[in-house]
Structure formats: C-alpha cells, structure tokens
Amino acid sequence: MSSIDLLNTTKSAHSPAPVQLRNVVRQFGQQRVIDGLDLDIAPGEFVALLGASGSGKTTLLRSLAGLDSIDSGQLVVPKARAAVFQEPRLMPWKRAWKNVVLGLHIPDARARAVQALTEVGLAHRLEAYPATLSGGEAQRVALARGLVREPKLLLLDEPFAALDALTRIRMHRLIIELWRKHTPAVLLVTHDVDEAILLADRVIVLANGKIADQLTIDLPRARDTGQEGFQAIRARLLGLLGVEVETVAVAESRAPNTSVRRFAHG
Ligand SMILES: Nc1ncnc2c1ncn2[C@@H]1O[C@H](COP(=O)(O)OP(=O)(O)OP(=O)(O)O)[C@@H](O)[C@H]1O
Ligand SMILES: [Mg+2]
Q: DSSP strand E in the chain: where?
C-alpha cells in the first residue's frame, strides 16, 4: 500500500519536516530501484544526494516532484515544490518570461516572471526565445521557473552537469544566494563530490535502494575547496562511495575536476 501526502507547510504552526519518507518502494518489473527508503529533510535544509549511475536518484526525485508514483510506503512532500533537471526543458516557441510562468494561472504573471528572471540575473533576456540563450542562461530560466512557484522544496537533478566549469561556479553562488533568500528545503542530485560539499548541509549516499550513508557538512560558509577541513570531508565521502583515495590521487593529477561518475564508472 502506498500513500502520498501533500503537506501545506505554510499553514503549519511548528514547521514539521517538509519531506518525510517511510519505507518507500518503487520498482520497475522485478527491479526494486527504491527499496524501503526512509528520509526526512528539515525546513530550509540543503541536502545533496550522491550515488552510482542507475542507483535510483532520478527515480526518487521524480517521485518527490509528483512526476512518478511509488509502489508502497509513505511519502510526505510540500504542495509547493519545483524541480530543475539537467536539461532546462523550455518550450522553444515561448519567450523566456512565458516559460517562467508556464502553467501558472495568476493575474500578475508577467510581473512575477520579471521578478524571478531578475533574481537569476536575466532581466535583460525577458523576451528571448530559448534557442537564443546560452546553456547557463537557459538553466537560469529553468531556475526562475522553479522560484516563481515559491517552493518549500526545490528538487535539482544534476542541474549544473552540462555547464562549463566557470558557469558552474557562478551557478553555485547563485543557488546559494537564492536558497538563503527564499529558504526552501533543497534536494540536489549530483555526481560531483566537491559540489556536494560546497553547497550542502548534509550529503546522503543512495545505494541498493536505501540511504546507505550520510555525512553532515559543518564547514563554515562561504566554502571553497581549499578551506580547512574540506579535503578530509572529501576523502571520507569518497570512502563512503567506495572510491580508493590512491586512485583519486592518480586520476586527479590528470583531471582536477572530481566527479564520482568518472571514478566509479570509468
Ligand atoms: N520508467 C522506467 N521503467 C523501467 N525502468 C526504469 C524506469 N525509470 C528508471 N528505471 C530504471 O531504474 C534504475 C534507476 O534509474 P535512475 O534514472 O533513477 O538512476 P540514477 O541514479 O538517476 O542514474 P544516473 O546517475 O545515471 O542519472 C535504472 O536501472 C533504470 O533503468
Ligand atoms: Mg539520474
């Protein structure tokens, strides 16, 4: 038996965890991708989700976003939630501002779109069609589309993976700035261990359909990879992911941008 409850967190007096999963199962045929998963995310908490390719991260995110069902267990999520994926998923025939408010039936739609696009630094691209936007700009439009819904839960599935390194750094700063301002709970799927440590309060590792491990990141913000304690957390996290530290050292001398996908899956 399964149940999905939508929590209206704006009405609750004592702010319960906006995300509560109990014994959640999702299977495709005989394959149990999510297998008895328990997870709570606190109001305003930033959680990063790591795990091997095919471990079920997107499956979990889709269930949380309401884009897919679960087979059994309990899943509580806020009604106000938004998801941003690796690709921006914009309607090519609609201008940027119209993409931002797509599906929203509100009288002040344009003003709300302008506000959201301004927040992501795109006030000058309101009328642009998606084909004329850079990858980073398109992803910022997707982020604005999420923000305009004033989510209590923001779901991000590798939203920076397709961006170049510099744009990615800018997006990290932007996401932290927006998170601080709007204070949603965030669940960020990433393959990048450094990204997880730079952004999250807590990193969880998905394996065999469950939360296999987790680590609280108590480094002061703003963070950078050179700060004291960063490398120790990184080594611990790579250990949890089953990556040999020796292997990492060799691989890093060739490619400085650490990615779990690269190490774990060749
Ligand atoms: N609609 C579906 N029908 C059948 N199998 C599916 C479906 N969606 C996902 N799966 C399977 O579930 C497993 C988990 O897929 P999922 O996309 O959640 O992995 P992931 O952790 O997001 O991987 P990646 O890091 O590569 O994005 C995979 O084996 C996938 O083939
Ligand atoms: Mg995925």
A: 2-7, 19-28, 31-41, 46-50, 72-78, 81-84, 153-157, 185-189, 202-207, 210-216
